[in-house]
Amino acid sequence: MNIKKTLTQIKNQLHNSVDVANRSIQKNGVEIGFVYLKSITDNLIFAGSIFEPISEYEGDLDFSIISQIVKANDVSEIEKKEILDKILDGAVIVFLSNSEKILSVDIMNFNMRTPSEPPTSPVIMGPREGFTEDLKTNLSLLRRRFHSADLVLDSMFVGQVTKTKVVLAYIDNIVDKRIVKEIKKKLEKIKIDGIVDSYYLVTLLSSRPNSILKQIGNAEKPDIISAKMLEGRIAIIVDNSPIVLTIPFVFLEDLQSSNDYYTNYIYSTILRFIRVVAILLATIGPGAYIAFQLYHYNVLPFKYLITIADSTQQVPFTPFIEILFISLLFQILYEVSLRLPSYLGLATSVVGALILGDTGVKAGLISPPTVIVVAIAKIALYTVPEQSSQITILQYIFLLIGASLGLLGLIGGMIYFLAYANSVENYDTPYLAPFSPFILSDNKDGVFKVPINKMEIRPKSFDNQKKERMK
Amino acid sequence: MKVLDRSINAWQLGILIFILLFANKILVLPSLLFEGAKMESLFALLFLCACEFGLVVLFYFAKKKFPTQSFSKIVREHLGNITKIMFYFLIMIFFLAKAVLLYNVTYIFFRNLIYKDTSNFLILFCFLPIINHLAICGLRVLGRTTQIFFPIIFGILFFCIVVGVFGINNRPLFFSSSFMSILETGARHISPFGDMMFLFLIMDRVEIKKGQWKIIFSSTAISLLFVFAINLVFMLSYTFTCFMHPYAIFEIMSFVKEYGGLGRIDIISMVLIILLAYFHLTIYLKCFMLSFHEVFRKIDMIYSVLSFNFFFIIIVVFFIVNLESAIVFGQEILPYSIILPYAILPIILLICCIKNKNIKNDNFRKIIKNNKKDIKNMQKNANFNKKTTIFSKQIKKSIFLTLKKTNKNLYIFSKNITTKFKAKLKKVLIDLNLINSKNKILKLKKKEVFDFEKLNFKNYYSKIFMQKHFKICKRKREMSEVTK
To answer: Do B339 and B374 sit in the same domain of this protein?
Structure first.
């Protein structure tokens, strides 16, 4: 093999990128060439485990000897067409002038953050580690939880340019194979240039991609994913993304928090009730308030009516404009607090809450009851953070309905939306199960939560092989 | 737009029955009944409720007699296509008229108490998109949606009755009306009844398992009991001023002193009326759609929704515009239509039971139609074992087993086959681990093992189809159990 020519060819294929390293040495009349990417391989390991043993070897070098003296775990012979893929995966490719064989030594290493508690799902009690952007770390976090040969990790590549590794993780004797097949089929069909984050797959795997409803579950913690897999769900782990997707998904999953399983079950039930009430308040609260204020003031208690009339008589705007104005103000502050550095967060809070809110009320531009209603609705929104984007959209829709059609429209809107949610069946799983269709056994971990020893069977909302989980 | 329609279970049907039984019965009816025959009108109500319950019982017998068939098919097979079309045309008009009556009463309630002097179009704008969407989404979505709202509806109804009891000021005064006036009142206000005819329209879309009939009967009984209780509480609360209070469920919540601290609790009954109105109108529209489809089979079902909207808007905007005209419509015109559920329907069913023809299943035809190409190919290559077995000698009836792809249930379609034999066959399939006790297929995702060669089919297609879906079974012993 002509080493110089081969190395130049590879460098040209990689468009002479700055991180391409190639080197050749002469040893006992044999030319040895190395090529790798500096950015994703460990230079120290390369020097100590590959370069040094080869350069210090005294005898005649050939392919079999090199593969034996190299100090690495993953050493394999590859074909010519695999060279580029291996280099891009962080391997060092070794060529010998006296052999046509090519050696790949995997020493990929790049800086990744260590598993830490994810900001999206902190717990008071329970495991604190979360997934990272490194696929290997994520897989190891899962493997550690399943000492079983039944844990299957199926990998495939998605994205014509990025060739992102996507791993399907499931428990072989629990999961419904039909769903696994369906997901694989869908993934294979995806013709996209790249998958930058797992969220790209959410739309591509949903049965109704344009729907407002969240149809695929996600979590950032291995304990949550493990629990879901034990129920018969499939986890989709995407390289470079700390968010792991789960299929099938039902709305109930977002009502549940990992904290619920690490605390007293009665307390968990109370918390879940609070979440349901909070969702209702967040969704229809502002709409209902405006409907009563505009259309049904005659059914409001007299004292309350006087309070509202008293506080709103100075306000120059209509109730709808007023509530919309405060909602938009909150949304702006929310966006600002997300994007600003944390040390400026306090300043925005002061400006938002004190100057804009308090002064607005004092100036008579907004009324205190409206501020309270919007504040309650916005705070309630974040009791179920996973659904916050959907609920925010619904909040505005119901606000518009409440302002234009009153209670009749509001109830109609609720029926419409629930009927729509009921018509969604992603991977043959009813979206609102186990509430509708009502499944009694699944409601043991629904709004009511029973102790673990009473949850004897797996969810019936979706298909799985083994229904029994405890004897 | 595609109209979706899939089956519902007994629980969902029970909830639909529970909800529908309140249609037109708890708003203006109690006041009108009392005006007609004072407290004795309760006897008329009791009789009418019994008639409504009778329709459910009739449905039970019809379902037992023809478990998988649709009612339209039963009528067509026994009485001919023209009779079927005429019958369904009448049903179509019946449910349209019911929807008009319900809408008008509800609209006038809204206009008087909630939306002062609101135009009819605004209320129509609220109702029509929602009921159209629900009806188009299909029976299953409707069933599931009502399932979510059922606890709210039930809770409010119960609360209204309990609260209403606190508002009772009078004792019942009987013997103030003659027997004739009771009869006359009953006949005059019969139009809110007969809703249970909808059960026959969705007969083939309901999956009722053994032992689940009690759900249907108890939901009917509880609902009728609630209707009766609301009427009773209202009559006892407004014994002398009934004519001044036309909206019963709302009125019994209006002046309850015990709950004064809570403020206006009549808002709760208002929510109930709104919820019920949406669901009642949706069920009426669904019934209209189903009967429209039977009358105009070749026309897409979406046109049934459009026609309903067209006629509905025309009638409520131009013809029945106020409470008086709605009451006249309900008392003078609609009562004649009640002949449909209480006379024509039972007669038709009786004739069908007497004739008792065996009807081929639609699904059977569809499957044969869909697999005609495969069957033709297989006919060329088929090599059948013509040896008769003990099994075939004893049964000598054709059996057809197939896999319904949508819900993975195994259906045993048969010609002249006894229920006993079906049970035996099912037992064998369970023993073979091919299905579970709920008819769910366990191992038939791929072409699976089954002893079809041992079944001597008279129906050639069924034999070929069996060969396509099942391979030869090794366990002879289990199969021979069927023959015992």
So the answer is: no
